[in-house]
Amino acid sequence: MSDITPIRVRLEQQEDFAFRLSFPDTDLAALLTDEPAPLGHDGGPNPSRLLLAALGNCLAASLLFALRKFRNAPDGSLVAEATAPMQRNADGRWRIPRADVELTLPGSAADYQQLDRILAQFEEFCVVTQSVRQGIEVAVSVRDGDGRVLLGDRSFEAGA
User: Fold this and answer.
1) pLDDT computed for residue 160 by the predictor
2) Strands of 18-22's sheet, edge to edge?
3) Per-residue confidence at 2, pLDDT binned at 50, 70, 90?
4) Are residues 52 and 129 in the same domain?
5) Are residues 64 and 3 in the same domain?
6) Nearest to 63 by CA among 6, 104, 19, 34
7) CB of 106 closer than 8 Å to CB of 72
8) What is the DSSP string of 82-99?
9) What is the CATH number of the domain that holds 70?
10) Are residues 31 and 64 in the same domain?
């Protein structure tokens, strides 16, 4: 992955709170996301579940990468389970204040070479976890169907 090629996803509303999530410039299949009732119809994972999935997947892949780097070949399946409480903040808005990810290696710890070293460093390989821990700046813009900026950077409208 190049540092000059941005990662892109596209969401298109299908019905109510259900969105078709696609991955432009790839051959990946689209995914349906949806909110649970009463807003949506549970037709797919909601953004909170996708966040937990991203954390769990990234950590599992990072651990596997680190294991293989030290010539370990885990037989069987590595399992990741992510959980998070939903809590209201001071303004009464739902937030995820923390996430817990449990990774389970196949076999015994004795089956792995350099396990202490692996466990000390594998999290550093996880783009998602490290990005979430550091906080991600999110710039938001809203345009209408005519392309007018309703929210966000309007500098181009002033001739800048």
Assistant:
1) 45
2) 10-15, 18-22, 31-33
3) low
4) yes
5) no
6) 104
7) no
8) EE---EE-TTS-EE----
9) 3.30.300.20
10) no
pTM of the model: 0.87
Any idea what the Cα angle at residue 33 is, between residues 15 and 10, rounded to 5°? 90
pLDDT the model gives residue 139: 87
Specify the DSSP element, H or E, that contains 150: strand 149-151
Using alpha carbons, select from 25, 16, 21, 76 the residue that is nearest to residue 53.
21
Instruction: Please tell me whether residues 29 and 101 are part of one structural domain.
Output: no
For residues 31 and 81, membership in a common domain is answered with no
Which residue range forms the structural domain that includes residue 58?
46-158
pLDDT > 70? residue 79: yes
- pLDDT in the model for residue 89: 96
Angstrom distance (rounded) from CA 50 to CA 42: 13
